[in-house]
């Protein structure tokens, strides 16, 4: 009975004191019940059997002892139910007593490849400094990750494109200290950093050291790495070094492509006197090798035609017009089968210099003449027929489209060199025959060399429309420059009207090109007013163009007006302006103003006095208004400190020229004194 009662008590959760009051105990036994012991039985129903350690026949308790018993069982009798609960609920009563535990989650550890992707993204957005900071601070110092080769390569590539050669090689040295092996992409980026460096001397030195290091390691370079090395020598070295790299490429079984010859043409650009003739020799070798030029090759050829000379016409005629068409055709077929160029022949031809030929040059010329004589006699050079144009196209001659040319005349201007390769229409037709489309740079180079005029501009506008080339303000500025240099005011106005039709806005360079055509004082002042109306401030280049046109006509009234406007607008002169003004302020050579009087030279004296006063106002001044005569003192006024570095340099140039002018005046005074004493 007691066993059933205890089990009922546990299952129903009733108060023990209430249930015990319903069932009175015998008064004969005074034994206190021991705690319940619950044992799990092995019955199939898995019921819990509770047994009491006390005897069922206990005498009744005294009322005082009964209260004591009830107090002992208060903990059990206070619980209403015995349901299962979550461990968090059971431990809830201990939370106030125990201190709160703070579980800090460790930061997520990024991988080296994740940092590679982030740095690559920042470099594409032109955020090189942020990429370097992410690599050094977050990856190396913050998470202390071990970088991989590609982490350094992507940063070296970004430094190379930015021309930061010092940081690029610092990363490379750090990479070697960590025991990482550089890849072809790493060496390509390093050579590209040498090519893009602002200091060509530093870039060449670093490139030669890296090239020597690779030779000691016997590291085989890839074609892309060879092209980066070739670009470095083309920019910082000379053409002979480029030819040496091409020969090494051929020895290592690398194919010569359009990009290879692109860097050879870039190497020709280094020689300002004979660069155009060398570029034509490389172009002929390219066609003989069966390599079709691309847009970049045409752009470099046009660039050498614009900025480089042709050299000795007799030497150019001997070198360029010495190979008949059929011989070139046979060499073309042979080169196509071999897939390379005759680098030895090209080097011998490029090394020919005007004057007495060396033994090697005589052998090369003798070999070419023997090769020409071995062919049919009908291939000999013949005079140009009257039906042929007076300006032969050398590019068509290289391809065998026209008859041979006897000689080449002297060319001096860029337009003459452009006419030698067929002019703008001839170049564009040659490109169309090879399936090459011109780009914006091609059209800009053509407009730089073409004769000024609305008809020439219309030809380029038609080509731009045909090839869907969007023309920018630089293209139209070049057209305005050509028209202004030729004193073609109508041509400049026509270019401006085309710009308005195409909704192309003007910039400061546009007004600088227009200033070259301002012959009169009225035109110059109107240009300055138009600049202010357009929201532009005249800079030193605009005033230099105006001073050049006024000095060309020796209009001293115009010059005084320009100098006065410069002082009013606080545009400080640079060295070019001071040189122009010094030339205008000089007396004619051999003139003695004390023997004869010239009314024209009276204006020179008036300008010289105004020029001296102008120089005193324009350079940096002290707080008391007195001019600083000592440049070595290094004292800068408060107004000078507020100026930019370029303006301070301009003022320093003015002070240097003023000191030189004082020396000239002192020498003239001494000469005058000696002359008076001799009389």
UniProtKB/TrEMBL annotation:
<dbReference type="Pfam" id="PF13041">
    <property type="entry name" value="PPR_2"/>
</dbReference>
<dbReference type="GO" id="GO:0000049">
    <property type="term" value="F:tRNA binding"/>
</dbReference>
<dbReference type="GO" id="GO:0042780">
    <property type="term" value="P:tRNA 3'-end processing"/>
</dbReference>
<feature type="repeat" description="PPR">
    <location>
        <begin position="148"/>
        <end position="182"/>
    </location>
</feature>
<feature type="region of interest" description="Disordered">
    <location>
        <begin position="42"/>
        <end position="65"/>
    </location>
</feature>
<dbReference type="InterPro" id="IPR002885">
    <property type="entry name" value="PPR_rpt"/>
</dbReference>
<dbReference type="Pfam" id="PF13812">
    <property type="entry name" value="PPR_3"/>
</dbReference>
<dbReference type="InterPro" id="IPR011990">
    <property type="entry name" value="TPR-like_helical_dom_sf"/>
</dbReference>
<feature type="compositionally biased region" description="Polar residues">
    <location>
        <begin position="352"/>
        <end position="364"/>
    </location>
</feature>
<protein>
    <submittedName>
        <fullName>Pentatricopeptide repeat-containing protein 1, mitochondrial-like</fullName>
    </submittedName>
</protein>
<feature type="region of interest" description="Disordered">
    <location>
        <begin position="352"/>
        <end position="390"/>
    </location>
</feature>
<dbReference type="GO" id="GO:0005759">
    <property type="term" value="C:mitochondrial matrix"/>
</dbReference>
<feature type="compositionally biased region" description="Polar residues">
    <location>
        <begin position="670"/>
        <end position="679"/>
    </location>
</feature>
<feature type="compositionally biased region" description="Polar residues">
    <location>
        <begin position="42"/>
        <end position="56"/>
    </location>
</feature>
<feature type="region of interest" description="Disordered">
    <location>
        <begin position="619"/>
        <end position="679"/>
    </location>
</feature>
């Amino acid at each position: 009975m007691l066993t059933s009662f205890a089990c009922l008590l546990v299952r129903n959760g009733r108060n023990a004191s209430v249930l015990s009051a319903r069932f009175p105990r015998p008064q004969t036994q005074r034994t206190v019940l021991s705690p319940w012991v619950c044992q799990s039985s092995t019955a199939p129903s898995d019921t819990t059997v509770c047994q009491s350690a006390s005897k069922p026949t206990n005498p009744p308790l005294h009322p005082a002892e009964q209260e004591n018993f009830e107090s002992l069982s208060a903990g059990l009798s206070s619980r209403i139910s015995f349901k299962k609960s979550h461990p968090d609920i059971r431990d809830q009563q201990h939370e106030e007593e125990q201190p709160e535990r703070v579980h800090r989650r460790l930061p997520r550890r990024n991988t080296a490849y994740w940092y590679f992707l982030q740095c690559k993204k920042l470099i594409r957005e032109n955020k090189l400094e942020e990429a370097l900071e992410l690599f050094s601070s977050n990856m190396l110092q913050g998470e202390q990750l071990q970088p991989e080769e590609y982490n350094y390569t992507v940063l070296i590539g970004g430094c190379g494109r930015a021309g930061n050669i010092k940081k690029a090689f610092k990363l490379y040295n750090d990479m070697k200290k960590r025991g990482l092996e550089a890849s072809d992409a790493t060496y390509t980026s390093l050579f590209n950093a040498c090519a893009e460096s602002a200091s060509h001397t530093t870039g060449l030195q670093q490139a030669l050291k890296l090239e020597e290091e690779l030779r000691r390691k016997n590291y085989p370079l890839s074609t892309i790495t060879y092209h980066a090395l070739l670009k470095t020598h083309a920019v910082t070295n000379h053409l002979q070094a480029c030819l040496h790299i091409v020969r090494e490429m051929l020895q290592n079984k690398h194919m010569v492509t359009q990009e290879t010859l692109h860097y050879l043409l870039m190497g020709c650009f280094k020689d300002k006197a004979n660069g155009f003739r060398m570029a034509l020799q490389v172009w002929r070798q390219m066609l003989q090798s069966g390599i079709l030029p691309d847009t970049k090759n045409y752009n470099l050829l046009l660039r050498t035609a614009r900025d480089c000379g042709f050299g000795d016409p007799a030497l150019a005629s001997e070198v360029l017009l010495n190979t008949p068409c059929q011989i070139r055709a046979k060499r073309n077929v042979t080169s196509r089968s071999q897939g390379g160029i005759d680098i030895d022949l090209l080097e011998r031809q490029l090394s020919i210099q005007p004057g007495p030929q060396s033994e090697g040059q005589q052998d090369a010329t003798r070999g070419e003449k023997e090769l020409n004589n071995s062919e049919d006699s009908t291939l000999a050079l013949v005079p140009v027929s009257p039906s042929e144009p007076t300006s032969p196209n050398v590019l068509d001659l290289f391809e065998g489209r026209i008859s041979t040319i006897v000689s080449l005349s002297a060319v001096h201007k860029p337009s003459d060199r452009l006419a030698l390769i067929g002019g703008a229409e001839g170049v564009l037709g040659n490109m169309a025959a090879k399936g090459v489309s011109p780009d914006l740079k091609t059209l800009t180079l053509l407009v730089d060399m073409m004769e000024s005029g609305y008809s020439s501009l219309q030809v380029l506008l038609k080509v731009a429309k045909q090839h869907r080339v969007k023309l920018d303000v630089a293209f139209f500025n070049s057209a305005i420059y050509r028209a202004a240099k030729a004193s073609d005011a109508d041509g400049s106005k026509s270019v401006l009207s085309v710009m308005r039709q195409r909704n192309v806005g003007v910039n400061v360079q546009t007004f600088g090109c227009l200033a070259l055509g301002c012959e009169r004082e009225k035109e110059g002042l109107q240009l300055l007013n138009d600049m202010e109306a357009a929201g532009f401030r005249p800079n030193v280049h605009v005033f230099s163009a105006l001073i050049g046109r006024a000095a060309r006509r020796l209009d001293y009234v115009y010059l005084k007006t320009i100098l006065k406007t410069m002082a009013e607008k606080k545009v400080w002169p640079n060295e070019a302006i001071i040189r122009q003004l010094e030339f205008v302020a000089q007396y004619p050579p051999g003139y003695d103003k004390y023997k004869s009087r010239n009314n024209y030279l009276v204006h020179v004296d008036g300008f010289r006095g105004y020029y001296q006063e102008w120089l005193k106002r324009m350079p940096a001044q002290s707080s008391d208004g007195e001019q600083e005569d000592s440049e070595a003192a290094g004292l800068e006024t408060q107004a000078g400190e507020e100026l930019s570095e370029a303006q301070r340099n301009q003022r320093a140039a003015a002070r240097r020229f003023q000191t030189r002018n004082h020396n000239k005046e002192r020498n003239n005074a001494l000469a005058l004194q000696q002359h008076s004493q001799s009389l």
